[in-house]
Amino acid sequence: MTVMAQSLKELPGAMSYRWWALIALALAQFLVVLDASIVNIALPAIGSELHLGTNMLGWVITAYVLPFGGLLLLGGRLSDRFGHRRLFIAGVGGFTVASAAAGVSISGEWLLVARAVQGTSAALLAPAALALLTKLFADPKDRAKALGIWGAVAGIGSAAGVLLGGVLTSSLGWSSVFFVNVPVGVLIMAAVPFLISKDAPSERTGLDMTGAAAVTAAITALVAALAGTERVGWSSPQTLILAGAAVILLSLFIFLEKRVANPLMPLSIFRNRWVTGGNLAMFLIGGATTALFFALSVYMQQVLRYDAMKAGLTQLPMAGALVAIAGVVPAIVKAFGTRRPLAASLILLAAGLIWLSFAPINAAFTIHLLGPSLLIGVGLGGAFVSGTEAAVHGVDDDEAGLASGLVNTSQQIGGAIGIAVLTALSSARTESLLEQGVSQPQALTSGFAWVFLGAAALAILGASVVLTVIPALKKQ
């Protein structure tokens, strides 16, 4: 039992303190996930006011994703080293200030710097938040419930980005997509010191800064290579150089981790098959869901001609299904262990994606989209909850931040690779059909169908990995 959990249990109404603390942690995670997508709808308005071209607008997204994905492992290890609550509060503070700065941007350069600080702060708070959750809820039954809420919030954040982005941009202007973070961040920072006791930093001395620099540079190079493929192509010198640098730096990181006294990421953590299987699953889930939300949003607006508000509202059934199943999954995990619910959730996700791939160019929402949306929501809810549970199962307290940073990193890199590969396939399919004289709506629809089928393939692969890697008959 951790010192923090003991101190909470000594307080009157300790259970309520823990669950209120979970709300604060989940809200912070919601902001982190939301900010990866809420800005998309606002990009045209941002470009018009700040005089940004198409290439620079892409960097409004990339400036957030690069430091977020690249610094997650370091952020997790820093929280282990200096205290999870301390790093969480610092991350929320930085994220809040950077959000306010982004909202008052007077130039593109100002906005990009603010977005980079947002991403860096998110890399601090996200792993610290999940590590705090695993410490607060040491009992497997309570932890499963807490992770159910956590998974639901993460999924809702992904789905809500389009809806909130459309509502806020159309009613209050593009700055509001950043300002919305400020009051929530202030509330979280005010509440956490009263809800969560200070946790003791790790007894390990020293910090593997060389390894941190190598892995951060490797992940940043990889994400930058993938983020740029849509603009410059897969065979461009930029893509090849960045990808080659990522491979070299990752190899250097592994070499260093085997030889330093206090490695940033002890490779022994992968001896835990739940951690290995959970991270592989979250990598593939990230790839499938990032591509799904991008393609579905564009399909609804470019093919079905939904406006931003309507496109966002159509995400609500999926989000509702996700929340409903996330509340049930902890009981299922308790009864059957992590392995089977996670594999089943991925199969349901794949089934919903395959169903969605049959949507025509004149799809009616209730006939063609509602059914697959609900099935996808059920699959995502189960996969997020059980996948996160697997990825942090059996991890010692002094490596909780590392495990949390690792699962977030897996999801972010999976998302970057998934959207880059699947959108490239979609574009190739669409261009091929256009060259054959097929109408643009039909060509786009067919291209998006390839994205949905590719995402389904990732989900099926994830189910196979789970059944192969995660041990059977282990109940939580």
From TrEMBL:
Gene Ontology MF terms: transmembrane transporter activity
Membrane topology category: Multi-pass membrane protein
GO CC term, one of those recorded: plasma membrane
Domain Major facilitator superfamily (MFS) profile: start-end pairs: 21-474
Keywords from the named record: Cell membrane, Membrane, Transmembrane, Transmembrane helix, Transport
Gene3D superfamilies: MFS general substrate transporter like domains, Multidrug resistance protein D
Transmembrane regions: 20-44, 56-75, 87-106, 112-134, 146-168, 174-195, 207-227, 239-256, 277-300, 312-333, 345-370, 448-473
Protein name according to UniProt: DHA2 family efflux MFS transporter permease subunit
Species of provenance: Paenibacillus soyae
